[in-house]
Design a protein that fits this description.
Largest sheet: none
Order of helices and strands: HHHHHHHHHHH
Structural class: mainly alpha
Number of domains: 1
Bound molecules: fe (ii) ion
CATH architecture: Orthogonal Bundle
CATH class: Mainly Alpha
CATH topology: Hypothetical protein af1432
Number of strands: 0
Radius of gyration: 15 Å
Helix content: 55-70%
Number of helices: 11
CATH superfamily: Hypothetical protein af1432
Oligomer: single chain
Length: 183
Amino acid sequence: MNIDYITREVEAEVNPKRFAHILRVEEMARRLAVRWNYDEERAALAAVLHDYAKDVSDEEFRRRLKRGDYPEVFKDYGNEIWHGWIGADIVAEKFDIHDEEILNAIRRHTTGDTTMTLLDKIIFVADYIEEGRDLPEVEEARRLAFVDLDAAVQLELANTINFLNKKGARIFPLTQEVFDGKR
Ligand SMILES: [Fe+2]
Ligand SMILES: [Fe+2]
């Protein structure tokens, strides 16, 4: 299955603003892949797919939570967690992709994980620093991403946790664990 076909399918599935974001993440993921010696086409594929399920309804996610083999804690969270972790399974079904490295990058892009592959880090960071973003310290994150990718991951985690704390939102336990482990 080629990336042009997948990109068209993604375009049909998500809203136009989201699709524009996805293309910018792809562009950034390609640049990071070149910088960090990862396969550029695989990084592009994971990037194009990372938000495929972002516009899936909560009803659909809840149906999948009920019948799927997901941790109980998922029920206490929403789209922000589901579109990655359940989204990866939706991608697997839709595109018949069973490459766990690609699927894990989709799963981990909103939460991080205690072990992250190079591809996980590329997608996690590209999502944060793509050229359309105006997030806290995004300029510094953009600079770091090409100098020290792990430091960019850490900065993104810290800012995300900070943002959620300010909002009074609960932090997903895995994300807190990742952050605590790296401090
Ligand atoms: Fe996302
Ligand atoms: Fe995204």
